[in-house]
Amino acid sequence: MPRSVEGRPGGARPYLTELRLSAFAGHLRGVFPLGPVTLFAGPSGSGKSSALRAYEALARLAGGAELGEVFADPGACVPERARPDAQRRRGFRIGCTADGPRGRVRLDVAVQAEPDLRIVGERLSADGVVLLETALRDPGRRAVQAAWHTAGSAQVTRAPLPDDRLGTPLLPLRVAGRTEGQRRVLAAAEQLVVALRSVFPVDPRPARMRDPVPVGAARLRGGCDNLAGVLWRLREEEDCGGRHARFVAAVRSGCRGPVRDVYAEPCAPGTVRALLDRGAGLRTELARLGDGELRYLALALVLLTGPGVLEVGPPGEVPPALRSLTVLADGLDRGLDARQRAELLRLATDAAGPGHFRCVAAVSDADWARGTPGVTVVHLDP
What we know:
Blueprint: E1 15-24, E2 27-33, E3 37-41, H1 48-62, H2 67-70, E4 90-100, E5 103-114, E6 118-126, E7 129-135, E8 143-149, E9 156-162, H3 171-174, H4 180-196, E10 199-202, H5 206-209, E11 213-214, H6 227-236, H7 241-254, E12 261-266, E13 271-279, E14 282-285, H8 291-304, E15 325-329, H9 338-352, E16 357-363, E17 375-379
Parallel strand pairs: 3-16, 3-17, 10-15, 15-16
Antiparallel strand pairs: 1-2, 1-4, 4-5, 5-6, 6-7, 7-8, 8-9, 11-13, 12-13, 13-14
Helix pairs in contact: 7-8, 8-9
C-alpha cells in the first residue's frame, strides 16, 4: 500500500490512495496508487479514460446517486470477452481505499450489469475488520442483505438495503451509534464518503467553447462550453481579483503572443463572449484560438478555481476544514505542446500543496512528468 504523500495515513482530511478495478471495461484486475496528482499514462485503448470513469462512478455512488444514473450503459463497463454465467449474469467490481483519521478504509463494490443492473455485493472494512457487508440472497427481491459491525450484545446487525444504491452512505440512517462498534462503522463510512465528495470531471470541448453564452451561465461545466460566462462572473466579483490575476498569468505562459488580460464582454442581448486583450488596443476573440490553446486555457481555469466556480455537487454536511476537490481531467495533454502541459502540471502540483485539492488525469505519455515531486505516474498497457 503506497504511503500518503501528505506524510501520514491518519491525516485530518481524508483522501483516496488507491483505486481497484476488476473486470471493468478493459481492466481485468488492476490496483492503482493515487497521489495528490496522478497521471494515468498509456496509448489509446489502454484504459485511462475508464479508470477516470470508475473514480467518478464511486464518487457519485458515495454521494447517494442511483445506480442507473451512474451507469447509463452498464454493458459497456463489462469486458467484451466476459462470458455470462448459467443465469446469464455479467458484471464488474470497483473499489478504493481512503486514508484519514480512521486509518485506511477500503470499499469494494460488485455490480451486476446484466440481465438487471444492481449492486450484488459491497464490503466496507478498516484495519482488516469488515464493518459492512452486503450480498444478494434472493434475486427476485430488489434488495440485498446487509450486515454491519455492532460489537455489542450481538456482533452484527442484519437488515435489507436497496440494490440500486451504495449502502455505505446510507449507514448514518440505519446505525444508531450506541456501541463502540457502531461508532466505528459510522466513522469509517464518513471517512470514505468525505474522501469521495466534490469530484469535477473535465474534458474541454473547443468546438463548443467558441460561441457566446448566456450571462447567467456562471458555474463552469465539465465541457467548459460556458467559459465566457464564468470569466464574466470572475471579473464582476471583487474577491476573485487575485485568482483572476493568476489565471491571466497562466494564460500568458501558455498562449502565443502577448496577453494583457482575459475577460468577457456583452455581445448579443443577454450573452457574453470571451476575449484576450493583447495590449495596444488589440483584442483576440477566443473563437479564433486553436483547439490546443482553448483546452489549455480552460484547464488552467479549472486548476486555479474551486467548487464555488466549478459545477460540482454541494459538500453536504462536510466541515469546511475537511472539504476538498478532486479534478478528473481526461486527455490532460491532448493537443498541448510541451510548454503548456508543463505549466498545467505546475498549476496542479501547486494547488495540491495545501492538501485540499487533488488531480487525477489521463495522458498519452508521462515521460515529461517523471520525477516531479507530488506526481504519481501509473503506466497502463493496451
